[in-house]
Amino acid sequence: TVELVESGGGSVQAGGDLRLSCDISGYTYSRLWFRQAPGKEREEVAGIDIPGRTRYADFVEGRFSISFDAAERTLYLQMNSLKPEDTATYYCAADPRTMTDMMARDLTPAHWGQGTQVTVSS
User: Fold this and answer.
1) Among candidate residues 99, 95, 94, 59, the one with its CA nearest the CA of residue 79
2) Which residues are CB-neighbours of 70 under 8 A, at least 6 positions away?
3) 34-46 pLDDT, tens digit each
4) Roughly how many angstroms between the first and final C-alpha of the chain, as a whole number?
5) Looking at the DSSP assignment, which residues form a beta bridge with residue 22?
6) What is the per-residue pLDDT across 53-86, written as a single tens digit (0 to 9) for each?
């Protein structure tokens, strides 16, 4: 079975940094971060696969970095230079399929964490 548990959310001043963590158990190939603000649609933030290939949303603008520690089985999202518009609930997600296949077929990840809140004040 696959289980995901996020942590690391909190409140930070604009321009500050946060690192989100997601402990993953079970087999996964693609690991991703999503976020959703109240009244807005869920959006992909970043993704990484087993070969280490990454992808980022345009709004990241070089500020975030996704990584995976294979030894600890932990997915990370390092967020720097945070803006108030980054305020949202952040979710980690995983899937045994490749990101290319998922995006080409518009598939949603099979496994999700509970989410962790990130609040950025101006």
Assistant:
1) 59
2) none
3) 999 999 999 999 9
4) 41
5) 6, 75
6) 999 999 999 999 999 999 999 999 999 999 999 9
